[in-house]
Design goal:
Layout (H helix, E strand, L loop, with lengths): L2 H5 L3 E5 L6 H9 L3 E5 L5 H11 L7 H17 L4 E4 L2 E2 L8 E2 L1 H7 L5 E5 L9 H6 L4 E9 L5 H10 L3 E7 L14 E7 L29 H7 L1
Parallel strand pairs: 1-2, 1-6, 2-3, 4-5, 6-7
Antiparallel strand pairs: 7-9, 8-9
Helix pairs in contact: 3-4
Amino acid sequence: MSRSDIDHSDVLIGLGINDDWSFEKEFKELRSVEVYAYDASISYKTFLKQFVKSLTRIDNPKIAFRLIGTILSYHNFFSNSGNYHIQKFVGLDTDDEHHCTLEEIFDHLTHQNIFLKIDIEGSEYRLLETLIAHQNRISGLVIEFHDTDIHLNSIRNFIKNFPLNLVHIHANNFAPIRASDGLPLALELTFSKHCASFKKPSLPHRLDMPNWRDKEDINLNINSLMNCL
């Protein structure tokens, strides 16, 4: 992720946070902007229910301690001014009050330099046309693509038509790798408006962090991967 993209951003939109808002927190430490985090799957009440349930797991008390940390972190971050958790899923166009489209988010915002982080477990493919349509308002984009083997054409077309530079690729080590060509089935792609295009370095980068910390990160064959993309 380019520091220049952060410095040029007016707002951060995070789609999908689950129980980890470290990206949003670190971004805010570098650039004091409003943060809007969308995710209907979690809430303060959700974490409290999980904590109460964890108290019955006397065989694994670490779960309860971890949830205490999550609850405190959630409260500390989202109780601060300018940090908002919106309990909505983004992507599906439906009348359900717990869903909204990315188009609706863009319509609501007046900001012209929007940084987007997207990790919404497959619904990202519903957003690609909207991202291209609003390309001039996007200062940077980090997006995770899931089930890449059955969506390669969509990913290729997006990379081709989205004008920001592809500057980094990281494989999610929770997902398997296709044996025939080494394609990771979950890929995190970073696009930058202010940084030079992809230079094909060794991947993972020394600053990358494994998604599954107890498992070794995936070493990408970048030439093979770029042939897939």
